[in-house]
Amino acid sequence: MSGATSGVLSRAVLTTGGMAAQGVARLLYTVVIAHLAGAGAVGDTSALLSVMVYLSLMLPAGLGTGASRYLPLGDFAGVAIGVLNRWFWVSSTLLALAAAPIAFLLTHDPFAAIGCAILTWSYNAYVYTRGILMGEDRILRSLIADVGSSLLAITALVAVLLAGANWALLLPLAVGYGVFAFFARPRTRPSPSTAEQRGMLARFVRDATIGALATGGLLPATMVFVRAFDTPHQADLFAAALSLATPANMISQALNQVLIPHFAKLHLDPALMRQSHRRMVIATTAAFIVIFAAIIALSPFILSIFYPQKFVDGAGAMQALLVVVFFISTTCASAAYLVSAGRQKAFAMIWLTALIAGTVVMAVFSPLYGMWGALLGFAVGGIGGSVAVVVAAFLTTAPSPLSPALAAEAPEQP
What we know:
Blueprint: H1 3-36, H2 39-56, H3 60-70, H4 76-107, H5 110-135, H6 139-162, H7 171-183, H8 195-229, H9 232-265, H10 270-297, H11 299-306, H12 315-329, H13 332-340, H14 344-369, H15 371-395, H16 404-407
Helix pairs in contact: 1-2, 1-6, 1-9, 2-4, 2-5, 2-8, 2-9, 3-4, 3-5, 3-8, 3-9, 4-5, 5-7, 6-7, 8-9, 8-14, 8-15, 9-12, 9-13, 10-12, 10-13, 12-15, 13-14, 13-15, 14-15
């Protein structure tokens, strides 16, 4: 195994550990609520978490991708962080304000609306600053912050529930994400930017945002459609299944965050970049086959461990979710390769098409078949988009030329 590959794998292990901690925390969040607050609270909380995820995809996720893409590139990092920071503060504030009325429409609870607004801002900060840590190669700090903030969130949730303050169910998670963001503040010092550099960053973030919205939007959209068109009981079962499928999806996200800066550093050596892509596709696909096969087979048993017996009926939904999540997860290396190679627009268009197709299927079949209609849409969009991304990556033989705004800052090839 080459030194570069070994370095990527070690970073991937640390990043996956951090994301796993967050995934377990999200899982335990719904488990604790199910046991101490009742099944009805699970459905509402899962719906509001889906709103949080959706709104983070509107811009903060793209800003985080931009940070992981451009902070490894020497002097240009200062230009990038200055621009990205300004865009983060404006977008996150506006999105938090938008979260409140959406949450109120779903729950008719003013406290839930306020909590969702706070949680949305905090989660946006988490998503963005996590990209900063990846770009600055501060992986160990990310792991420590992930574990610490996750433990804090769960501990605070138990305290809230034992105190009978069910109106504050979202605040412990918001505090956890906020603590992570505080410890993930960038070390890179901002530097002045030109109009051309800002334009280049704007185009990248635009395409990355479209890609993030499309790739990340399908899974929470499924929950929203189930909540809207099926019975409360089915929505609760699906929420339990979704909470157990989410950690598996986070593994892919963690790998993607490590691979974007890895491929970005190889931008000036197309042959080595392609070779590394092939190796990563083989390694990650093999790992995901083992992981997902085991989880799918053990789904009924896993549900019975984490949830009361009445939730075990959600095993079929969980297995269907995991099959699609497997296909999406196998694109982590190809997605990072396309973004780092300057083909983020093609990547975004693939997933935008997949999102539209999947959402249309959900809109047509969810009113007829409830949860299973929503799952059909998720399968159409998720599997179709995944296959297209992998094919596009292997057809990309060389990175696109560097923008003049960036070329002047790029390190010379040894």
